[in-house]
TrEMBL record:
Residues 217-582 form the GH15-like domain. This is Trehalase. Signal peptide: none annotated. Pathway: Glycan degradation; trehalose degradation; D-glucose from alpha,alpha-trehalose: step 1/1. It is an enzyme of class 3 (hydrolase). It comes from Pseudorhizobium pelagicum. GO terms for biological process: trehalose catabolic process. The keyword Disulfide bond does not apply. Residues 2-152 form the Trehalase-like N-terminal domain.
């Protein structure tokens, strides 16, 4: 049975990731890529859908978890009546093969562990053929996939499970390596698990060593940085929004989506966080990914792609999985890939402009990309779209979308000005930006409410409007900004956290009700910083940090009444918020200040 979302820790190798429960069960793993079919899917079903547990036989008196310092190596220590032992779970950076390693370490007395390995390919459905050989190697094959387990413990087949037990004494270490390989290829040569542990620790520690100090927030920022890095697909530079699919935004409901893809919006925000911390290699790799992914005509540019740049991401329902705590359907693929969302042009323009300011040399294709995208956007910005929240109720004139279209032209004009572009480009793009600015100010602001609104003519508030001062559309002391922030504080804060909008009032095509979308609370903190309300922002930020689980991870949403995490986990958006608000509060190259470059006004 799946644990609470906050009871999971993530391990990964920058190509895929697994979730490990507090009780030592790996309940989610897709091999070989983030978006491959899961071979452990009990997170979204039952134990029979695949998992691998190594759990003390006696009642567990205490569990303590932490990542080995500055790494993604998860250490879970169990205390039982007879002793104390820990499990190190990790996925070594790939060196030709894809491995998951688990090392049990006896620390005091003796602890007996029960092992239950249930391999089910194809999202928990395909039962493989399992064979054991004399060397203690177990091999499972179904269709294109093969898993090979190097195990010092003899596992016996029982009802399509591989089971065994082992007693670990103080000072003893027992290692298991699970390797994925295509079933038609030779079985990869086994690696030394202790050596891969050292390599994995070094890989992460070297990565984190470049992180600057962010005052008292440094540890939180480092953990978020590692989490975001784990969501980057190393071979291509693509970045996934999360490593899971279909963890529900409301328990028992249908708001369950597949986030194992690369959204231009989520990825550019991740990129900003990387760049703000000085991680320019990741930014350069993503820019390469972007240029390959969007190559072609501007009409065909998508809002999201597969990690390799794939465009076809058909959404389908996995009807054999019961869903997390019965939340159905479980979806694979994402129909939002076919939506029109105006804001992505602004997100991409902003990220590319920031990349230049951070010292990245111009990309040989940047100018030609801008040369086709901006004229396209000039033609379409007046069209309705599905917006940042990817509504499934049809298109509208979302205020946030228009603001981000303004960002695209504003940044294009500034970039041309700063880096010696053509005077005609500076003038033309500024003119379109001014036109959009005027349109938003006359149609997106409701005098009666004293607030910008979700879409032209509506009375609905939306947390995305907090981006208005953050991207520099209007200065923070503009009365319309101040009153919009105050209106959001009055109407969208529920039980201390910010909703993205009221699902009871705004029709998004789905049944109403969801948790608080966490990145929105970080945006409010950022807006409060800009408004000069530092104490409020700091208090709020500390509350948000307090929502992280014991190993520093946040999901997409939170139910403050039930005190539970909701939505896909861990989610890039939430960790971007943890980083950028910390930077704002710490006043180290604050991205909120930096993104809101001075503007001429409406
Ligand atoms: O609310 C309906 C939509 O929900 C998902 O979108 C959300 O996640 C995206 C990835 O983090 C994010 O970019 C977007 O802003 C969020 O609203 C889902 O992916 C959509 O298919 C769905 O329509």
């Amino acid at each position: 049975m799946a644990s609470r979302i906050e009871d999971y820790g993530m391990i990964g190798d920058c190509e895929t990731a697994a979730l490990v429960s507090r009780m030592g069960s790996i309940d989610w793993l897709c091999f070989p890529r983030f978006d491959s079919p899961a071979c452990f899917a009990s997170l979204l079903g039952t134990d029979e859908n695949g998992h691998w547990s190594i759990t003390p036989r006696l009642p567990v008196l205490d569990v303590r978890r932490a990542y080995v310092e500055d790494t993604l190596v998860l250490e879970t220590e169990f205390v039982t009546e007879g002793g104390r032992a820990a499990i190190f779970d990790f996925m070594p950076p790939r060196d030709g093969s894809s491995n998951l390693v688990r090392i049990i370490e006896g620390r005091q007395g003796e602890v007996e562990f029960d092992i239950d390995l249930v391999m089910r390919f194809d999202y928990g459905r395909s039962v493989p053929w399992v064979t054991h050989d004399a060397s203690g190697r177990l091999t499972a094959v179904a269709g294109p996939d093969r898993l090979t387990l190097q195990s010092p413990v003899d596992l016996k087949g029982e009802d399509f499970h591989s089971k065994g037990s082992v007693v670990v004494s103080e000072g003893q270490r027992i290692a298991f390596t699970l390797t994925h390989s295509p079933s038609h290829e030779p079985v990869p040569v086994a690696q030394d698990p202790e050596a891969t542990l050292q390599q994995t620790v070094l890989f992460w520690q070297e990565f984190v060593s470049r992180c600057p100090s962010v005052n008292s927030y440094t540890e939180t920022v480092k953990r978020s940085l590692i989490t975001l890095k784990a969501m980057t697909y190393l071979p291509t530079g693509g970045i996934v929004a999360s490593v899971t699919t279909s963890l529900p935004e409301a328990l028992g409901g249908p708001r369950n989506w597949d986030y194992r893809y690369c959204w231009l919006r989520d990825a550019t925000m991740t990129l900003m966080a990387f760049m703000d911390l000085g991680y320019l290699d990741e930014a350069a790799a993503w820019r390469e990914w972007l240029m390959r992914a969007v190559a072609g005509t501007p009409e065909q540019m998508q809002i999201m792609y597969g990690v390799g740049g794939e465009r076809h991401l058909p959404e389908w329902e996995v009807d054999w999985l019961a869903g997390y705590e019965g939340s159905q359907p479980v979806r694979v693929g994402n129909a939002a890939a076919g939506q029109f969302q105006l804001d992505i042009y602004g997100e991409v323009a902003d990220a590319l402009a920031q990349a230049r300011r951070h010292g990245l040399p111009p990309h040989p294709r940047s100018a030609s990309l801008a040369g086709v995208l901006l004229p396209f956007l000039e033609k379409v910005w007046r069209e309705p779209d599905e917006g940042i929240w990817e509504v499934r109720s049809g298109r509208a004139h979302f205020t946030h979308s228009k603001v981000m279209a303004w960002v695209a032209f504003d940044r294009a004009s500034r970039l041309a000005e700063e880096f010696g572009g053509e005077a005609e480009a500076v003038r033309r793009w500024r003119q379109v930006a001014d036109e959009i600015h005027a349109d938003v100010c006359s149609n997106g602001y409701d005098e009666e409410l004293g607030s910008f609104v979700q879409s032209y003519g509506s009375k609905v508030l939306d947390a995305s409007l907090l981006q208005i001062p953050l991207v520099g559309f209007l200065p923070p002391d503009d009365p319309r900004v101040v009153s919009t922030v105050e209106a959001i504080e009055r109407r969208l804060i529920r039980d201390g956290l910010v909703l993205r909008y009221e699902t009871e009032v705004a029709d998004d095509g789905l049944p109403s009700g969801e948790g608080a979308f966490l990145v929105c609370s970080f945006w409010l903190c950022d807006a409060l910083v800009l408004l000069g309300r530092y104490a409020d922002a700091k208090r709020f930020y500390e509350k948000l940090v307090g929502l992280c689980n014991d190993v520093g991870l946040l999901s997409e949403e939170y139910d403050p009444v039930a005190g539970r995490m909701l939505g896909n986990f861990p989610q890039a958006f939430s960790h971007i918020g943890l980083i950028s608000t910390a930077l704002n509060l710490a006043r180290i190259e604050g991205p909120a200040e930096e993104r809101s470059l001075p503007v001429e006004g409406p």
